[in-house]
Write a structure and sequence with these properties.
about 35% helix; nine-stranded mixed β-sheet; Rossmann fold; about 375 residues; six-stranded parallel β-sheet; Dihydrodipicolinate Reductase, domain 2
Length: about 375
Amino acid sequence: MSNLNFGLIGTGFMGKAHAVALRAVGTVFPEVAHPGLTCLVDKNATVAQQFADAWGFASASDDWIGMCRSDAIDVVDICTPNHLHMEMALTAIEAGKHVYCEKPLALTAAQARRIRSAAESAGVRTAAGFNYICNPLIAAARDMIASGEIGEVHEFRGSCREDYLADPSTPYGWRCARNRAGAGALADLGSHLICMAEFLLGPIGSVLGSLTTVHDLRPDPISGRMRTVENDDIAQALVVFERGCPGTMDISRVATGKKCGLMFEVCGMKGSIAFDQERMNELRLYQADSQSGRRGYRRILAGPAHPDYSAFCPAPGHGLGFNDLKIIEVRNLLRSIESGDEIHADFNTACRVQEICDAIETSHDGQQWVDVSRNALERLQLTA
């Protein structure tokens, strides 16, 4: 397959992570098309050029619309604040480009559905930035659940907790603004947990949500005046999966001491599986039929026996990292463009995640359970 030329919008944390993945994917997975680092876009032309030189892009620009419409670009990669995602994605799709967008896909489910519909109508391939499900051990956990190794699942417990806004003196940023971020911890962190939960156990059927803002005011980074935080610091939800299994979700951006606390425990009739992203190369497995006196969780180390691991390293226990999962994510998109097949974390998944985030907010506002089954959401869209 011929190479695909990428235009990347954004020079922050995610912009760099995507640039690293685009540069490395052809080395790690030589069977896929090699991305051409064609254009890097930032609102500041000088910054764009500096990062283009540092990251190896052929050109730089402050004109994202022109880049999206350029015949030199095959794939538009969006790594900007959330409120810009919809306009950028729709512009790229209208120009016939494939689109790779960081999560959350949009500010609301209505926006996400609009983007998804446009991509489907245009026949372009898409990917969303849910790289945690690309971990080889997550694929292993999913296979164990699907094969019945831990028996019928009767409980899910999940959390995604970090402390990047635990300090009340941390300045107000775009993630605190409703019109730029949408929801708070729920959108930023909860989207990963929701995606992970459905990847492992299938669709969630209903949710009951609770939202809390711990630090209502934060200092403006320029003026120092206190500004009102417009979204949640903590989101919690009870969920029931369509398979009948209940679960809990605990999401926080003020969890002092937690750095990347994406964790889950899946309990079945014959065993349990537990995972902690801060120890992302370990999966813990409990088997109830173990010999008496030998029972307890045992540790499974990531290794070449797990999908995609061997592309990075031939030896178990050496471990993968966050950026490696981004490389797998890019590989999945490239495969999808080549084959036309869907991947799990595409805009369908991203839209579904946004619908559940919206439902948790609706549940909090109305203090009642909200039906998020696929049939219920399809009926809602037909009447909207």
